[in-house]
Amino acid sequence: MPTTVVKTIGATSSPTTPDYTSLAAWKAGCPANLVTADEIWEGQCLNQGEFTSASTLLTLSGITTDATRFVRLTTAAGASFRDNAGVRTNPLNYDATKGVGIRCTGAYTIAISAAAIANCEFDNLQIEASSNSASDIIDFSSSAAATLTMKDCLVVSKATGRSCVNSSNFSNTFIAYNSLFVATSATVSPLATIACTVNVIGCTVISKSGVSPITANPYVTPTVIDTAMFGGGSATKALSVGSASLASCNHNATDSATAVGSANQTSLTFASQFVSTTTDFRAASGGALPNNGATNSNILVDISGTTRSLTTPTIGCWEVTSPPPPSVNFRTSLSGIGGRAGARQLQARN
């Protein structure tokens, strides 16, 4: 059983002094061989201000990993946007005032490079690119058999030409649970050129009109379940994949006229499915996403930490919950059917 080595990352010494003051310094402290060390190297970001730079903020390379001994970047307890007191009412979009944020401002700059590591995981993070670029926010194109796992993350591209995640190696595996990927200004898919095994479950993927939310290589086997894929429009494929027979896709929703797989909802109105199509990607209670998903053991809670329905969850990363029943004033109700005398009689019987 590997040992999880936890190191904190922050910008200041108040109120907690971090182990490292930058993402790059945290990576530099990682053992070169986690398999030999029998460790998981976990960085926990403190909520001490936004991690921002015009240069690549984190490059994962020179580290030997395997499926059980790998690198994980997450947040410290209480530091994620998921931990914010207003998480259920806050707009679902990048906002570093609500929790740890990682933002790249440089043009033609990858925010996080995971192109030279075999196994890594990102949890509870907000990541944004705010400048035009032909690069991607997260580059995952390791030449080795590699796995990138993302859980409960929020990745937003505000830049033309920049996808949220890009992988271009057949031997890789990309896994995403309960995450939001938005690239409404991009000319490429939010999940672009996914030339690897794809598992996207319980996610929301928003693209620009005319752009497929997910683009997969014709020869890979994409698994897309309980995922909302919107923004491309009716004439665009929600999941662009060369061989539909290879795909395992069901219980998805899209504004596209067609969708690969079964039990999917198509031709939905984009504007009716979310609180906002530009600033708030929480599922709308009156839309078609609630009560139309399938139960999946990987997504028993949503991106806000809310428990999902065990029978008919909401499609996408956001679970719409039923409002509580109206409260009943016991004494007033009794008065309405028999006045105070009726209340006294019932109390006497009990």
Model description:
By secondary structure, the protein is mostly beta strands. It has a domain of 232 residues. The protein is 9% helix and 28% strand. The strands form three sheets. A nine-stranded parallel beta sheet has the order 1-2-5-8-11-14-17-20-23. It has an eight-stranded parallel beta sheet with strand order 3-6-9-12-15-18-21-24, with no helix packed on it. Strands 4-7-10-13-16-19-22 form a seven-stranded parallel beta sheet. The C terminus is likely disordered.
| Total helical elements | 3
Q: Total number of β-strand segments?
A: 24
Find the structural class using helix and strand composition.
Answer: mainly beta
Main sheet strand line-up: 1-2-5-8-11-14-17-20-23
Topology:
Layout: E1 3-9, H1 23-28, H2 34-37, E2 39-45, E3 51-53, E4 58-63, E5 71-75, E6 101-104, E7 112-117, E8 119-123, E9 126-129, E10 138-139, E11 147-151, E12 154-157, E13 165-166, E14 173-177, E15 180-183, E16 191-194, E17 197-201, E18 204-207, E19 214-216, E20 222-225, E21 228-230, E22 239-240, E23 248-250, E24 253-254, H3 330-349
Parallel strand pairs: 1-2, 2-5, 3-6, 4-7, 5-8, 6-9, 7-10, 8-11, 9-12, 10-13, 11-14, 12-15, 13-16, 14-17, 15-18, 16-19, 17-20, 18-21, 19-22, 20-23, 21-24
Provide a quick synopsis of the model:
The chain is mainly beta and 350 residues long.
Q: Main attributes?
A:
disordered C terminus, eight-stranded parallel beta sheet, mainly beta
